[in-house]
Amino acid sequence: MHRIPIQSLPDVVNQEILRNMTPSEIYLASMTSKKTKKLIKRNIYKVDEVGVEISRQDYGIRAAVYIKIEKKICYVVCLEFRIRPLRRVDNGYQLLENIVAIPSIVPNHCNMPAIRRQIHSIHSYVCDVFNIDTSNLSVRFPSDIYYEFFDIGTVKKCTVPDELLESEFSMKLFNQQKNMNLLIVERSRGIVDCGYVYFYQHVPTVIHRNTQNRSSFLLTRFQGQHGLFKNCFLHGFYVNVLLRLWSENKMDNLVSMIAYQSVNRPFDYEKVVEVLEDKMGKSEGNCLNALQVEKPSEKRIYPYESIISQEHQFEADTFDCDGGYDVVRNSDEKRATIKISKDYFMFFVWP
């Protein structure tokens, strides 16, 4: 077999070569020499994210570094920490199903400072190879929350299944990661209780794909900026409470909230429309005394700028505010638009 002198090939050829290599093969190639790593960095394709996934395995715990390209996750390299030490320790690299398995410097998961350093080192290296800012640390916990695997204040994005929000480890995670700016709660297959919203109510951006009864708490207690809540059990009463709280400057961080009703649950949205229409009629006994309600006739598109748009594909007319209700806060004349139907509730604060 002849060797291919990739250093002498034009960039367009190297780019095609890299597109046909797995992320693990690119990782291994980058370690062969500084020149090869530099060549890879110059020609590598664009990735959206480099993150770390911590998962429970039969033998212990696996920390896997992955890349994300157009919402597809590709694993690059993993570390394995065994609950029980093995009689035989393999000190070599292994290529397992398109992922490189690196021997841990710590055979079990007792020395957490050393484990954190090794995970951080490998994550930083993969970020460097794929030209991603290493400070934007994304983590995934598909089976259990291993908050202790990361230094305090370093996690910026976190993905967990909804069933894990009930655990005490969830509380410890959010207490330690105050700099988290995006939380994604995925839908699990098990039966999920309401949960404790106050664990994560201050995260600036939250995507919850299986909100259910949590919608009542999030509508009235969410202290972040942007929320996308799917499969909600919306009630008109709690939507009206949100409007009242916002009018009284008690949810002043809120910029946008999009909540989609569950297809199997009725939403008494008429109660909200009734209050808004009543307020437009200048009723003095209305619960929204701190607001003015209008229905503008001009066509407007809300300038949505949340990072949620990188994680969710919205319908084309989502931010078309034509026909929506405008609420204007008396205290500072801040304006927001409400879009509401049997299928959704949307709240957009204008800049």
UniProtKB/TrEMBL annotation:
Domain of life per record: Eukaryota
PROSITE patterns referenced in this protein's UniProt entry, alphabetically: FBOX (PS50181)
Record-annotated F-box domain positions: 3-54
Family annotation (PANTHER family): CYCLIN-RELATED F-BOX FAMILY, F-BOX ASSOCIATED DOMAIN-CONTAINING PROTEIN
Entry protein name: F-box domain-containing protein
